[in-house]
Write a structure and sequence with these properties.
The chain is α+β, with helices and mostly antiparallel strands and 205 residues long. It is built from two helices and eight strands. The chain has helices at 10-29, 42-57; strands at 61-80, 85-101, 107-127, 136-142, 150-153, 156-160, 188-189, 196-197. A hairpin with an 8-residue loop joins β3 (107-127) and β4 (136-142).
């Protein structure tokens, strides 16, 4: 990566990734992701939009307060010399409060005062040497387990993608497929975080 872009620095990247975590997570919870589009891959943006729309249709709102990032570490980094495409995976341990309210304003899940800790593993991608300085979120995974939602993204045939833990909704709300690349599936949840996932064996390649 340094060969392709000498100004690149890991420390600077991780500092930006720390801020991006709060920005994206809170934007998703608040249902305000339009301004986040430059920082999300098309697939991630589409997925977030679908969940936000379903949430609105059901009269559900999330009120969340970000407390901070307790831990941040670099998990993996890859670079495609031919495409000059870099991907960096970061593990977060974040702290926040979150409640889900129904259309009547009643709290149906969570607590406004109880700080919960959640783990996420996010992958960012960028074409090194390009004029665009933004890294895009291309994949996320619940850090509490290995269960994944799989979606196609431009940089890879299949990339594991899972909704952030704070993105989950109460009760049994299925997450719909976004494209013809998906076959019907059964919703399931991470036993640790409640995050929705699609078993990989149910994905049509």
């Amino acid at each position: 990566m340094k060969r392709a872009e000498p100004s690149f620095g890991v420390g600077e990247f991780l500092s930006g990734a720390r801020g991006a975590y709060e920005m994206i997570l809170m934007g998703f919870d608040n249902g305000e992701i339009e301004d986040l589009k430059p920082f999300l891959s098309d697939e991630i943006y589409e997925t977030f939009s679908e969940v936000i729309e379903q949430r609105a249709q059901q009269g559900l709102t999330i009120e969340a307060q970000f407390v901070g990032v307790r831990e941040l570490s670099l998990v993996d980094a890859t670079f495609d010399d031919t495409e000059r495409l870099a991907e960096i995976t970061v593990k977060y341990v974040g702290e926040l409060t979150s409640v889900v309210k129904n259309a009547a304003g009643e709290v149906i899940e969570g607590s406004p005062t109880a700080v919960k800790r959640q783990k996420d593993v996010w992958t960012y991608a960028r074409r090194m040497g390009s004029d665009d300085p933004n890294w895009q979120l291309v994949a996320t995974r619940c850090g509490n387990c290995t269960r994944l939602m799989v979606r196609k993204v431009p940089s890879s045939p299949l990339v594991a993608v899972n909704m952030p833990a704070a993105a989950k909704a109460p009760a049994a709300r299925p997450l719909p497929p976004a494209s013809a690349a998906f076959q019907p599936f059964d919703k399931a949840t991470c036993p640790a975080s409640g995050t929705f996932f699609i078993p990989a064996e149910q994905i049509s390649r």
